[in-house]
Amino acid sequence: MRLVSLELESKLREKGLWPETRMARAGVYVVVLDLLFFVVQMLTSRLSPSVSASLGGWVSFLSGLAIVLFGIVGFRWLRSQLLWRLRNRLIVTYVFIGVIPVFLLVMISLITLYLLAGQFASFVVTSEITSHLRSMEASNRAMASELATQLDRGGRPSAETIAGMRSHDADWSRREVCAWHGAALPPSCSGPPGAAAFPFPSFLTGDFREIVRDRSDLYLRATSMVKTGSEPVYVISSEPLDRLLMDEIAAGLGEITLYGTIVAPAPGAAGNTSKPIFSAQNQNKSGVAISVGGQAGVSGDSQQLAPTFTAGAIPPATGAFDREITFGTPLAVIDWASGERHRAGALVRVQTRPSVLYDRLFAALGDLARGVEYILLVVAIFFWIIELLALFIGTRLTRSITAAVAQLYEATKHINRADFSHRIEVKSSDQLATLANSFNSMTTSIEKLILEQKEKQRLENELAIAQEVQAQLYPRLISQLESLEVHGFCRPARTVSGDYYDFLSLNSDKLILAVGDVSGKGISAALLMATIHSAVRAYSLESVPLLREAAAVGAAAGSGLVLASDLRGAEASPGTLLGLLNHQLYESTPQEKYATLFLGIYDGAARQLTYTNGGHLPPILLSEDGSSQLLSCGGTVVGLFPDVHYPEATAQLRRGDIFLAYSDGVTEPENDYGEFGEERLIELVRENRHLPLARITEIVTAAVDDWIGDKEQPDDVTLVLARAR
């Protein structure tokens, strides 16, 4: 079962259907739980309807939650797919930086222009109404002044007087005019036939021009007051705010719809009981109607805006962009009975077109309006050209960036395939071109590094072989004498070493000890070390012909190699061997190459060490009683000068004496306290003299490592120990 599950998971992962994120896994869990609840709901729908109904709510909730979770997962997946390419990211960035701000700016401009146009259309309507009210107020003022003059002269104006003051203009055909002057001048009205008389309001104290509501109808009413000797004269003009008036305003503007308030009077509310004393229904028809003065307010009414009428018509469009503009503005309305002011007692909705408003706005310019249109058109075209140029330049820049990134991406694929010969074609001189050049330079450097790495690997392989060969040169199986035990150790600072040591048995009682150090490090020092090793072993064999004494002490090259057959089988002395080795190295190596070498022959029967030293650090002989002796007899280094004589000396070894030879890699390492030093070396060997020689070597090398610390080993470390027994 486990294997089947793993196989199914592997197949789903290959197809990309396995939920990897927490959100996707949560969505899967919710869907599984939703299906489980749905199955249970279906099974319990007949057995237990109440349980089924309760589960239905959970099913709906889990379904909605699953839709939300998978919607988030889908959005993340779509975002990762779309925004993976740099080009898409730059496009999105350009949209957010360039397109969306421009779009918002255009939208704000269009909304602002729409609001300004609608406000201008509403202003035209309200200004026409205000102009009409001012005209009515001016007429009232003239009539009030005339009536006040007659009253001051003792006259008694009548309804015919007011009718005679009316103008014969068409505007006066629907206008009703009423005048009041206390008892001197009874209230009188003159108006069109069938016009309802209106009472004198209690709130009126002076001039007045507003839209009023009287008995649920809207009127334009203006009042003028002129003081006389006794009481002021009031003249009130009233004109219905109806379709006829709106038709005049809507002419050349558009469609105007008036929304008025439907007033439902409260039960038991008192109405107005005063009526004018006389009324002239028409200027061509005389007559007087008498009523009792007085008024009452209206309270507790419910109001609701509703379309009253529509005047005018929407003008035809002059172009594709000449769209309809609909805008409404509230009208302040005064309740004629109570004097209460309603800021939105009525509403005017205007439907028009920009072309109509433009003609009204620039009507005063005449032919210059066409020039303004051309200027605006040129500015719009100029802005569009700039936007298109910006779009073109942005697209080119985006392509240049994405192309450079695509080239880098393809180049990285070549690098991943170890194809370091691939180069990016550079066509520009910008930072992206510099990046491409840097990439090309990097691949060139990588190619060189790989070649160098291959060469280094080859050299390391050769050095490893050289290290193996050199390891074979050091003595591996040492033939210990009955009276002397020996031990040698060499640790190179690099792969191969220039230090040399050897133990060569001449017979059962004699042993040659050799310790040396070649100048320099590395392969050249190792080769010279191998030469010295071979020469010492070759010259130390008993059957090798010996040089005559003259040749050993410095005969010219090629003139002293005389065989002494009568000396065959004789033993070579350390001084003779070192002189012969010096002659060979001087003749066969460059002048700057030399070596230091200590040679000693130990005679077990006599317990004597015959030695000579060619410039090497003098070995130390440590006695059982704690005293020490430097074996310093010898001459200069080997291979640097011709015809060098190396004197010999003899040292007696007693039981327990320790012979200690070393290279400068043991005593010369430094730290903050100075060099390791010869005294510290002697002290370590003296303290551990009774331990095995291999253990003494370990203690000394560990002390040297501690002295060096984390630093690199500066030189080869060589240590040769021998102990008499």
Task: Describe the overall structure.
This protein is an alpha+beta fold and 725 residues long. It has four domains: 2-82; 109-361, no CATH class; 364-473, no CATH class; 475-724, 4-Layer Sandwich (Phosphatase 2c, domain 1). It has helices spanning 2-15, 22-44, 49-82, 86-152, 159-165, 243-250, 354-361, 368-416, 431-473, 522-540, 549-552, 574-588, 664-667, 678-687, 693-708; strands spanning 176-181, 185-190, 208-214, 217-226, 233-240, 255-261, 278-280, 305-311, 325-335, 341-352, 484-491, 499-505, 510-518, 595-603, 608-614, 620-622, 628-630, 649-652, 658-662, 670-671, 674-675, 717-724. The radius of gyration is 62 Å and the shape is rod-shaped. The two termini are 76 Å apart.
Residue ranges: pLDDT <50 for 5 or more in a row?
268-300, 542-570
**Biggest sheet features:** 10 strands, mixed
Global structural class: alpha+beta
Number of discrete helical segments: 15
Shape: rod-shaped
Number of DSSP E strands: 22
Could you give the distance between the termini? Answer: 76 Å
Question: What is the strand arrangement across the widest sheet?
Answer: 7-2-1-5-4-3-9-10-6-8
Strand content: 15-25%
Give average pLDDT, whole number: 80
Give the helix level as a range of percent. Answer: 40-55%
Radius of gyration: 62 Å
Tell me the domain tally: 4
